[in-house]
Amino acid sequence: MVTFLVIIVAAAGIILLLRSGKGTGKSSSWLQFYAKGKDSGFSIKEIDLLRRLAVKSNLEDPSSLFWSQNQLDICIRSLVRNLHVSGGGNAQESNDFLSKLYDFRKKIEMNKPRIKNGISSSREIGDDQQLRILVEGIGVFKSRVIRNAGNYMTISRPVMDKQTGFFSWANVNISVYFWREDDAGYVFDSTVEDEVFSKGLASLKINHSDSLFRTQKRKSIRVKLHKSAFLYLLDNDEDAHKLEVNHGLKCFLADLSDTGCAVTIGGKANEGLRIKVQFALNNSPIVMPGTVRSVTYNEEQDRSLLHVEADPLPIEIRNKILGEVFGMLPEEEDDLPFRILEDEVDNGEINSGMQEVSETAPSDDIFQMEN
Q1: Cα atoms found within 13 Å of the Cα of residue 85, Cβ hemisphere only
Q2: Are residues 51 and 140 in the same domain?
Q3: What is the pLDDT tens value at each position of the chain, 371 positions in all?
Q4: How many domains are contained in the chain?
């Protein structure tokens, strides 16, 4: 009965809408708008809200918001601004609708050719690409591309944590794993042709492959940042989403998405750590608990870049993060809770980091290189 009434009300609304557009040429465009909205997965009520946003935003072609990233951004930004001014940003219904719009916005972004298509040959891998090298029966090594030109790829001599003894790489069969930024993960098989020196570094020449296997397609959009934050180690019995009032380890957010982040700390850390990162967006505190999936250590600077896979986030927190990722948050004064921290960082105090903070065993998933 309730469903029948909803259908009746929706039909009446559309009829009124068509009558209001009679003689103006708008009736057919609004019919198209509702049809595109249904095809895009929105309910009649949600499409009506989108129609109001399109009218308020003065879109010349309202239906374009269902395929144009720019037009959709205008509407979402208008909604976020209205929720911020009215104070309705914490209402469940508003957060649900905003979350659905962000998911649709992400879908449009992910369907762009530069993200959707990928690469098919190792000749397309860029210099300095981080690699994981698997040798069957030995283990997983870390490496990077030194030079990719000609008939071979030159990579730095692979190293393994706690490696002991000398290992000869000549003629060794290897599997190469890497994550291509803003794309996906890849794997291919190769053979080491020779051990050489390239750009003054001990290196390997490996064969190219035109049979790249694409895995772990990117599931989120991230934004590059250089934002002050605090990092805390998590105990199994504590509330991972609890807001901390005491300062933790000072760190920097290097990038952020709704599924994780990357942070820079002083010193070393291990994969598999359970941590949470606390920072501010638009003067709102954000807590992101998660697991360190990979670590890139810079020995010269004594700093580590931690790639963190986030736990499922509350919808209001996820919306605020996506607002930052897509540039939807209204501009305000600097994040007040972190002014003191930023002053400390400017004075060079960030390097008092964690030195071998844990002996936690690394993750079994050797290919989890992306947050």
Answers
A1: 6
A2: no
A3: 544 444 444 544 544 444 444 444 455 588 889 999 999 999 999 999 999 999 998 988 999 999 999 999 999 999 998 888 877 667 889 999 999 999 999 988 877 766 556 788 999 999 989 999 999 888 889 899 999 988 899 999 998 876 666 778 989 999 999 988 767 789 999 999 999 888 888 899 999 999 898 876 667 888 889 999 999 999 877 789 999 998 899 999 999 999 999 999 999 888 899 999 999 998 889 999 999 988 888 888 899 999 999 999 999 999 999 999 999 876 654 444 444 344 444 444 444 444 444 443 333 333 333 44
A4: 3
228 lies in the same domain as 272: yes
Mark whether 62 and 141 lie in a shared domain: no
Whole-number CA gyration radius for the chain: 25
CA angle 194, 196, 198 (to 5 degrees): 135
Total-model pTM: 0.69
Domain extent, residue 238, equals 223-346
3-state SS class at 89 = coil
CA distance 76 to 70: 10
Domain-located, residue 370? no
